[in-house]
Each structure stands twice: as structure tokens, then as C-alpha cells.
Amino acid sequence: MKTVREMFDFDKKTYIMGILNVTPDSFSDGGSWNNINDAMNHAEEMIKQGADIIDVGGESTRPGYTMISDEEKIQRTAPYIQALKEKFDVPVSIDTYKPIVAEAAIKSGVDIIN
């Protein structure tokens, strides 16, 4: 397994992270990518447009959001992480502050904890 330092040469390039929100109540995209087919199409488009990393978000942080359980966030994000790793050859990150979610994301194949 490559380390982040082996994947990226920070001295020579700036990397672009494409954001893939897979939550139904996202403030930025209104839940547009919360099914696998649409999400994979969107990820493919972001990669074509230059994204070097795909960051998976599974919990809204918009004003007035409702906090979800760790298990729900895992159920939302793990299938997308697995699908991204199977379909594309780009690093995948998980946007989380929850240790249990980060651990599940690692088991699903994520490369970076954001």
C-alpha cells in the first residue's frame, strides 16, 4: 500500500479535490449524488475536469442540520468508497471527524482521512 507521501509530490504539484456529497440534505448540491450510478457519473466528470482526489462526504453540516449516527454515516459512505476504488484509479478520501467512521472508511479502501 502506498503512503500519501508516495501518492503525492507536494513540492511539484497542487492537487485538486473533487467533493462527492452522498447525503440527501447537502447544502451544496441538494442530494444530487446520493445514489451509486449518479455518484459514479459525477466522480467520472470531476476526474475528467482535473480532480486528483475524490472526497466522500456523508453528513451535512449546513445550518440547522440534523446530526446522524455513526452507523448511518458508515452506511451512506462505505458503498461509495468501495465503488470509487473499484471504478477509478484516483485516491479517495473521507470527510469525517468521527473515529468509527474513519475506521470503517479505511476498511472500505479509503486512502485519506479528511
UniProtKB/TrEMBL annotation:
Gene Ontology biological-process annotations: tetrahydrofolate biosynthetic process
Gene Ontology CC annotations of this record: cytosol
SUPFAM superfamilies referenced in this protein's UniProt entry, alphabetically: Dihydropteroate synthetase-like
Highest rank taxon of the organism: Bacteria
Domain Pterin-binding: 14-114
Gene3D superfamilies xref list: Dihydropteroate synthase-like
Record Pfam families: Pterin_bind
Molecular function per GO: dihydropteroate synthase activity
Transmembrane segments: none
PANTHER family noted in UniProt: FOLATE SYNTHESIS PROTEINS (PTHR20941), FOLIC ACID SYNTHESIS PROTEIN FOL1 (PTHR20941:SF1)
Protein name as it appears in the record: Dihydropteroate synthase
Originating organism: Alkalibaculum bacchi
Lineage of the organism: Bacteria, Bacillati, Bacillota, Clostridia, Eubacteriales
